[in-house]
Specification:
- The protein has 347 residues and is α+β, with helices and mostly antiparallel strands.
- The chain has a single domain (1-133, 163-171, 183-347), classed as 2-Layer Sandwich (D-Amino Acid Oxidase, Chain A, domain 2), CATH 3.30.9.10.
- It contains nine helices and 16 strands.
- It has helices at residues 17-37, 55-70, 80-86, 114-127, 172-178, 241-254, 303-316, 330-333, 340-343; strands at residues 9-10, 48-52, 76-78, 102-106, 110-111, 138-143, 149-154, 157-160, 164-166, 186-195, 205-208, 213-217, 223-229, 263-273, 280-283, 289-293.
- It has an eight-stranded mixed sheet.
- A hairpin with a 5-residue loop joins β12 (213-217) and β13 (223-229).
- α1 packs across α7.
- The model has no long low-confidence stretch (mean pLDDT 95).
- It binds flavin-adenine dinucleotide (FAD).
């Protein structure tokens, strides 16, 4: 489960209008989520800072900042000194291999506790009467003679239903194949690792796409560090060692203070990546089958928004205007929403 295995970064500073709407919708919902679920999801708006290390980064981040502002999404430019003031462990030495030339800061971005999000939703859903059947794999999607969904086969038997919503992240293409659909998804392992716990030293979230690492500190005190995806497709939940070695080299370069920190554990999850790095959220060509997938390395931040939009689409049998552009059909028509640069994770 990706929701329970991620680096918990929440932000909405993507480039295109469609993305601004979908990610900012989610960000707005994070604000009241603890109250709504009556469960503390520990959403902490500590700011997400994306480092620029070369002229291309600076130009691209300025473009993002301007585009975000036009869409009412907060994002601001910081000089290296301002970035250091916001995040004191940051090295802005001019002698670094890739010196920090500035940063884009989204103050409303931050982190939430991933387990609490899963537990909070599960508890609130159960209170509404939803049956949650754990450890029960779906093995088939049954379709009637007219092609519409009739129900699902599971390890514990058949469930008849005219409507099925699929949210299976790295296994989405496997599930969609059960309904006879081929999806434009590639599944990659993505890793994260945490350090031994230390007292509060790291006040925000920092991402560097160029040197390539991202980092924050959990409430338990561990530094939570993320890497890029493996370069080959796989369903393995262990990533390759050289990826995290490279990530830690980057962390030591940007934060020399952490050179002697010991790492406690690492883990991987499988992420489903679309060609334009934007999700597919809506109806499928199979009547009664709905999908929420393709969030790749960045779907945790969308949790409340994706949940709301999928529920709307299933209930009304038509997408909400926010998820209407995120169709499967865009890969046929060419109306892509290319967020490869904003994904900020190498893949
Ligand atoms: C290491 C790592 C770091 C990440 N960091 C971030 C981050 O900082 N910020 C961010 O926004 N996103 C991040 N992500 C991505 C994010 O975790 C995912 O996009 C998100 O969790 C997807 O949520 P989901 O609910 O769609 O799927 P998941 O939470 O993955 O849930 C899918 C569920 O489907 C189940 N399933 C699969 N196949 C079947 C089947 N046949 N039958 C029944 N059940 C099935 C799985 O067991 C799983 O429980 C990260 C991912 C990883 C792996």
């Amino acid at each position: 489960m990706g929701t329970g295995r991620n680096t918990t970064i929440i932000r909405s500073n993507y480039l295109y209008d469609e993305s601004a709407r979908i990610y900012d919708h989610a960000l707005d919902l994070w604000d009241g989520l603890s109250q709504e679920l009556n469960y503390n999801v520990m959403y902490s708006k500590r700011g997400v800072m994306m480092l620029a290390h070369n002229v291309h980064d600076m130009q691209s981040f300025h473009r993002h900042i301007h585009a975000n502002r036009l869409n009412g999404v907060d994002n601001q430019w910081l000089t290296p000194e301002e970035a250091k003031a916001y995040c004191p462990p940051l090295s802005i030495s001019k002698n670094a291999r890739y010196p920090v030339m500035g940063a884009a800061l989204q103050k409303k971005g931050g982190v939430a506790r991933h387990d609490s999000v899963a537990w909070g939703y599960a508890r609130a859903a159960a209170a509404l009467g939803v049956d949650i059947i754990q450890n029960c794999a779906v093995t088939g999607i049954k379709r009637a003679a007219d092609g519409a969904v009739e129900g699902i086969e599971t390890e514990r038997g058949f469930i008849a239903t005219p409507k099925v919503g699929v949210s299976a992240a790295g296994n989405s293409s496997v599930l969609m194949e059960m309904a006879g659909l081929r999806f434009p998804l590639e599944s990659y392992p993505l890793q994260a690792l945490v350090s031994e716990p230390v007292k509060p030293v790291f006040p925000c979230v920092v991402m560097s796409n160029t040197v390539h690492a991202y980092i924050s500190q959990s409430d338990k005190g561990e530094l939570v560090i993320g890497a890029g995806t493996d370069q080959y497709v796989s369903y393995s939940q262990h990533g390759a060692l050289h990826i995290i070695e490279h990530t830690l080299a980057s962390i030591c370069e940007i934060f020399p203070l952490f050179k002697r920190m010991r790492m406690l554990r690492s883990w991987g999850g499988v992420v489903d990546v679309t060609p334009d790095r934007s999700p597919i959220l809506g109806k499928t060509p199979v009547p009664g089958l709905y999908v929420n997938c393709g969030w790749g390395t960045g779907g945790f931040k969308a949790t409340p928004g994706a949940g709301h939009l999928l529920a709307h689409t299933i209930a009304k049998d038509e997408p909400h205007k926010i998820n209407a552009p995120f169709t499967l059909d865009r890969f046929r028509t060419g109306r892509l929403i290319d967020e490869a640069a904003a994904a900020a994770v190498a893949h």
